[in-house]
Write a structure and sequence with these properties.
Layout: H1 4-10, E1 38-44, H2 60-65, H3 70-78, E2 80-82, E3 85-86, H4 92-101, H5 105-108, H6 124-130, E4 134-139, E5 152-155, E6 166-169, E7 175-177, H7 182-197, E8 204-209, H8 247-251, H9 292-299, H10 303-323, H11 327-362, E9 369-375, H12 394-397, E10 401-404, E11 413-415, E12 419-420, H13 424-431, H14 446-449, E13 461-465, E14 476-480, E15 484-489, E16 494-499, H15 517-533
Parallel strand pairs: 1-8, 1-9, 2-11, 3-12, 4-5, 4-8
Antiparallel strand pairs: 2-10, 5-6, 6-7, 9-10, 13-14, 14-15, 15-16
Helix pairs in contact: 3-11, 7-11
The structure holds calcium ion (CA).
Calcium ion is lined by residues 45-46, 92, 376-377.
């Protein structure tokens, strides 16, 4: 196998300095660091770039106008925003495993949500703990095994609940139920840890990982009517018919039209909630029974929470039923209902981020704390007619990444180099002055954060997706560079190729188009090299 340097040169990493590529921070690399920096790592679940005001997207203007993410936007204004941040496997558990290990799924062993994370393996938390960091994990975990390498943790079992959630707390047997809204509680727990648990003689690594805005998008009562009077802009490919791509795109089961659950995802006629709502309209599929997890959400609501829920959703559902929508108008209604609840969940999460950032500032912790905001992957907000993630297409391949490193990142700077979630672990280590173990596959982002333009940086990213089953997304892998994307649905012998410059919405695969014969050949070769580089067998 070729070594790293030879490989990077072979795929053009040494010649990455094309116009517009680079990071526009300008601070020198040699700022004195008198103390190892703290790391506050805020991770959300399924937060799309389209619903984050700091990111350019089809909805940026709308999100900013309605003040959905002012606090995360503030973090971007104070730190560096990565414009080309990607995950290696766009699904919850695998992304978290890659984040903790700095390795792709086939190396850390967590390929799909059906796997269980091997908690005995090396993680960045263990390494920081060994180096004297005080470590804590709060919120969503979702790795099938309990956190290791953390001095303290309070994590949700599985997906957790939005309303009155249970937590698994280190040192406690059984579950501990907290009253309130999950996002608020995770914000409170984060502040409480900083306030009462923090050892002021040591730096900390604190993970504040939100459940929001994961499905089934249950907003906080104070946000039920947010955006009620406006329409969220529709994507131009909301009515995508999946022509021009392989069979996989049309065989999936993640359309807003046919696959959102009318009772739980769209909150129409939750059976345990109301008796005043009439029968489900004819246009609604009859298969949409309430799933057990969401039933449990409703069961554990307090009378006040139920009252607030009914006060909003019952009249909304009555209006919906009176309209008796069909066809494209029904799809449009579902799109609005889905996305408004999604954005409402984002709003509460942004408020929690704001409260934590305020705490850091008030307590003079903002000067020596690296604050990271990211999500375990992106999400479809109606693009291609979809919700959910999984695909190597842009909306789920990309994830938000904003890092504020006081005194190092230039406020308001942007980085356009291609980075991945395997890069976070080595970044934290370099920031802490810890040597990066050789087996880590990611690259430290520290040079980029310092505003340097490394001679060698990656010019292509590897993507793998293994989880078939729910949503029926075929296994695939691929490579993306600045302009092109090649996807192999290797179980089906199908390929797709996109020219992102000419077709940013990925509506027509150019695989097989003679005009693209040369770049397709080159990308196939680069994919092979990338798989070699990351030790990914073609049959893995
Ligand atoms: Ca997720």
């Amino acid at each position: 196998m070729m070594n790293r340097r030879t490989f990077l040169k072979s795929i053009g990493a040494g010649t990455i300095g094309v116009a517009g590529i680079g990071c526009n921070s300008v601070l020198p690399a040699t700022l004195p660091i008198v103390q190892k920096p703290n790391v506050l790592f805020i991770l959300s679940d399924d937060h799309s770039l389209q619903t984050l005001g700091a990111y350019k997207s089809r909805m940026q203007e709308f999100i900013k106008k309605h003040n959905i993410t002012p606090n995360i936007d503030r973090l971007a204004a104070e730190g560096m925003l990565f414009e080309n941040s990607f995950v290696g496997n766009s699904i919850c558990g695998p992304s978290r495993a890659s984040i903790l290990t700095g390795k792709h799924s086939h190396i850390n062993g967590f390929r799909s949500n059906h796997d269980q994370f091997n908690a005995d393996q090396w993680t960045v938390a263990k390494e920081l703990q060994k180096a004297g960091y005080q470590t804590a994990a709060i919120g969503k975990w979702h790795l099938g095994s309990l956190p290791t390498g953390f001095d303290d943790y309070k994590v949700l079992p599985g997906q957790g609940m939005y309303y009155n959630p249970d937590f698994i707390e280190k040192g406690s047997s059984g579950l501990v139920r907290k009253q309130g809204y999950c996002t608020d509680i995770i914000g409170d727990m984060t502040i409480d840890w900083l306030d009462r648990k923090r050892d002021k003689t040591r730096p900390f690594f604190l993970c504040s990982w939100h459940k929001a805005p994961h499905r089934t998008w249950m907003p906080a009562p104070r946000h039920f009517s947010l955006l009620d009077e406006v329409d969220v802009p529709e994507p131009e490919n909301l009515f995508d018919d999946y022509r021009g791509r392989t069979s996989s795109a049309s065989e999936q089961e993640m359309t807003i039209r046919d696959h959102l659950n009318i009772a739980t995802d769209l909150k129409v006629t939750p059976p345990v909630m109301t008796t005043s709502v009439k029968a489900i309209p004819e246009a609604v599929p009859k298969t949409n029974s309430m799933d057990p997890a969401t039933l449990e959400e409703f069961r554990r609501m307090s009378p006040e929470q139920k009252k607030a829920w009914d006060a909003y959703y019952v009249p909304r559902n009555e209006r919906f039923q009176a309209q008796n929508l069909k066809g494209s108008e029904l799809l449009r209604w579902k799109y609005q209902a889905y996305l408004k609840d999604f954005i409402r969940c984002v709003k509460a999460m942004d408020e929690a981020v704001g409260r934590v950032l305020d705490y850091l500032k008030t307590n003079n912790l903002d000067k020596n704390t690296i604050v990271v905001y990211s999500s375990d992957q992106g999400f479809y907000n109606g693009e291609h007619g979809w919700y959910d993630k999984r695909w190597m297409y842009e909306e789920s391949l990309r994830n938000p990444l904003i890092i504020k490193w006081p005194g190092v990142t230039r406020p308001g700077s942007k980085c356009s180099e291609m980075v991945q979630n395997i890069d976070y672990a080595p970044t934290f280590l370099e920031a802490a002055g810890i040597n990066i173990p050789e087996p880590i596959q990611g690259k430290s982002l520290a040079p980029l954060l310092r505003g340097e333009r490394p001679e060698e940086w990656r010019s292509g990213i590897l993507y793998t997706y293994y989880e078939e089953g729910i949503h029926h997304v075929a296994r695939h892998r691929g490579i993306r560079n600045e302009r092109y994307k090649l996807i192999e649905f290797y179980g089906k012998g199908e390929w797709e190729f996109y020219d992102l410059e000419k077709d940013p919405l990925e509506m027509k695969s150019e695989y097989g188009n003679p005009e693209y014969e040369k770049p397709i050949r080159t990308m196939k070769q680069k994919l092979k090299e990338l798989m070699d580089y990351y030790n990914l067998d073609s049959d893995a």
